[in-house]
Structures are given as structure tokens and as C-alpha cells.
Amino acid sequence: MDERDWLILMKLYEKKNITKTAQSLYISQPTLTKRIQQIEKGYNTAIINRGTKGVHFTPQGEYLAKCAEEMLERFQSIKETVLNMEEEVSGTLRLGVSNYIATHKLPRLLGQFQEQFPNVSYKVTTGWSQEVFHQVYHRDVQIGIVRGDYQWPGPKLLLFEENICIASKNKIELHNLPSLPRIDYKTDTLLLQTIDQWWSRTFSQPPFIGMEVDKGITCKEMVLNGLGYGILPSALVDDHPDLYKIDLTDEQSNPLVRKTWMFYHEDSLKMKVMKEFVLFVERLNF
């Protein structure tokens, strides 16, 4: 079986329909049917049964379909290795980045890297930092850029730090915080834990949540319009000098900071494109 056959199995298992699979792969139904028959002939077993509601995989076919993603990743890895044996820096960089980084930092970073290495392509996935951490740990991506201090066993690079602060449109007093409307938002578990721990050390009563929104940037917009205060990483509010800000501190009066890291595996540096990207980021001023 070649790479195309594994792709056919993966798509067919996803679609459970010959017509939809053929359309997604831009091939004709007869061509697709012939390839399936050849796969069955190669393994001397039926892999699908056709029914009125689509196709159903036999146990043997289901096993092969579940192997398809792993095999396709292996083909991609082989291609990247062969490409990186050449002097020219080329291949595909698989990046996992936090939502904030994807919006505010990554486009400029990749734009500058692309100018220097135009033959590199990219596969980017985004999500919460905890999700990205698991992606790079399990090697679903080659590089992970996360916000927060995760326990990473391999090489890592500190990209930047930011204070965690209270932001309000108007001046507020810290001791009045429990009675003022707070705008809460969804974010990574580590940041939530840091904020909750600070609150429990500082106040004996819970916060008054006046509004809940989807993400930090939405919280910032609500704060700008005077709808309450937010507890946010400073990167979100540094470009708004008119906002009133109070940096959070720990028991020793040190600022509470949130660090952004780049994680990767040591053995991945054998690939030229990975080595060049890591060196490029080391020289870059975030």
C-alpha cells in the first residue's frame, strides 16, 4: 500500500460513504472503488461492506483504517527527513501554539522566517496552552508555544514574561474589589489557578462576577467600555495606557508573572528546518 491508499482508508473511515470520499479526494467513484478492491486483494480480505446507508468496515478494515493516520504521519516524517538531508532548508514545520500567540505573535514570526527560508511550509494548530502542551509532548506537533509554567522534560526557550494585573477603566482601590463587578473569561487552567490563589490569599469573600465572556480579549473590550474590571495578563492591556492597572503580587510582594515558552524535543533538531527555526526564534525579540 502506498501513501494514497492509506489516505483513502482514513477518509473513507471518516465519511463512511463512497461518493463523499471520492469528492473529498478529487477522484472518480470508479477509481476509488478500484483502489479499495486492490487493497482488499493485497490483504486477501474484505475491508468494507456496502449498505443502503453507506459503507461498514469489517474488523480487518477497521484495524487498517485506525492504522492509517499513523502511517500517513510516518510517510510525512520520511519526506521531511529526506528533504532535510539536502543543503536547502525545506520541509513542513508542525506548530502548536496558544490562541493568543496565534493571533498576536505568530503571523509576524512566520512572516520573517518565511523571508529567510521561502521553501518551508507550515501546519499550525491552535488551542489552550494545556492542549498545546499535550500535542508537543505526544509529538503531534514538533514545536509547542505555550503560556504558563508547565513541567517540560526537554529543551525549552523562554520567549517573554508578562505581569498579571487588574485592569479597570477608572481608578479603583484594591480593598474594594470584592464589591466591584468583575468580568470573568475562559482561559488556561494554570492562569485560573494563579488568579484564584491570589484572591484567596487577599480576600476572605468571593468575587462579585458581573459578567462572563469567552476569552481574555473580549474581557479587555468590556473593561474598556467601563463594564467592570478584569484580571488579565499585561500583554492584553499594555497598548492601552489610559486603563488603570494594579499588578498582582505574591506573599513576598514580587509581581505575579506569566511566562511564555517554546517547547521541542532534542532529537528533532536533527532536521535542518527545525534547527534553523529554533535558532531563528532564539535571536528574535518577542
Describe this structure as you would to a colleague:
By secondary structure, the chain is of the alpha/beta class. The protein folds into three domains: 3-83, Winged helix-like DNA-binding domain superfamily/Winged helix DNA-binding domain (Arc Repressor Mutant, subunit A); 91-161 and 259-283, Periplasmic binding protein-like II (D-Maltodextrin-Binding Protein, domain 2, 3-Layer(aba) Sandwich), CATH 3.40.190.10; 162-257, D-Maltodextrin-Binding Protein, domain 2 (3-Layer(aba) Sandwich). It is 43% helix and 24% strand. Strands 3, 4, 5, 6, 9, 10 and 11 form a seven-stranded mixed sheet that branches. Strands 1-2 form a two-stranded antiparallel sheet. It has a two-stranded parallel sheet with strand order 7-8. Helix 1 (3-15) crosses helix 2, helix 1 (3-15) crosses helix 4 (59-83) and helix 2 (18-25) packs across helix 3. The protein is elongated.
Highlighted features:
D-Maltodextrin-Binding Protein, domain 2; alpha/beta; 10 helices; two-stranded antiparallel ribbon; 286 residues; seven-stranded mixed beta sheet; elongated; 3 domains; Arc Repressor Mutant, subunit A
Largest sheet: 7 strands, mixed
- Give the number of domains: 3
3D shape: elongated
Quick one: how many beta strands?
A: 11
Q: Architecture of the largest domain, CATH level 2?
A: 3-Layer(aba) Sandwich
CATH topology of the largest domain: D-Maltodextrin-Binding Protein, domain 2
Average pLDDT for all residues: 91
What is the C-alpha radius of gyration, as a whole number of Å? 25 Å
- Proportion of strand residues: 15-25%
The residue fraction in helices comes out at 40-55%
Order of helices and strands: HHHEEHEHHEHEEEHEHEEEH
Summed up, the helix count is 10
What is the CATH domain class of the largest domain? Alpha Beta
Structural class: alpha/beta
Kindly report the name of the CATH homologous superfamily of the largest domain. Answer: Periplasmic binding protein-like II
Low-confidence stretches: none
Q: Report how far the terminal alpha carbons are from each other.
A: 45 Å
